[in-house]
């Protein structure tokens, strides 16, 4: 989902490595929506590779992608062994960090 492929967020996903996406996921777990200066803290966590505004926009695009998927506008990809329950769990995981 956040891999920089051909998702609906287009150019905003360019320039994100797989490592940065994973680091971003970890940062979201550390700095939840109740954290003051959340996006600045996440930018520091990521070593300054992305600005706070870039991080916030990237997150907003991820949330929009999840909304499209949940609305049935984008089919869940069929990865080896990933069933609908696992896909739904992944979707709930992202929503909890909004």
From TrEMBL:
Give GO cellular component annotations, separated by semicolons: nucleus
Alphabetically sorted, this entry's keywords are:
Nucleus, Transcription, Transcription regulation
> What InterPro entries does the database record attribute to this sequence?
Homeodomain-like_sf, RADIALIS-like, SANT/Myb
- What are the residue boundaries of the Myb-like domain, all occurrences included? 12-65
As recorded in UniProt, coiled-coil segments are none
Among its keywords, does the record have Glycoprotein?
A: no
Q: Where is it located?
A: Nucleus
How is this protein named in the record? Myb-like domain-containing protein
Which organism is this protein's natural source? Urochloa decumbens
């Amino acid at each position: 989902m956040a891999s920089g492929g051909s998702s609906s967020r287009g150019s905003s996903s360019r320039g994100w490595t797989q490592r940065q996406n994973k680091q971003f996921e970890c940062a979201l777990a550390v700095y939840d929506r109740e954290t003051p200066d959340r996006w600045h803290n996440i930018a520091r966590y990521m070593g300054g590779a992305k600005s706070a505004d870039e991080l916030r926009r990237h997150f907003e695009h991820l949330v929009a992608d999840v909304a499209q998927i949940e609305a049935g506008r984008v089919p869940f990809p069929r990865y080896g062994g990933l069933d609908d329950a696992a896909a739904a769990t992944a979707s709930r995981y992202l929503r909890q960090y909004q």
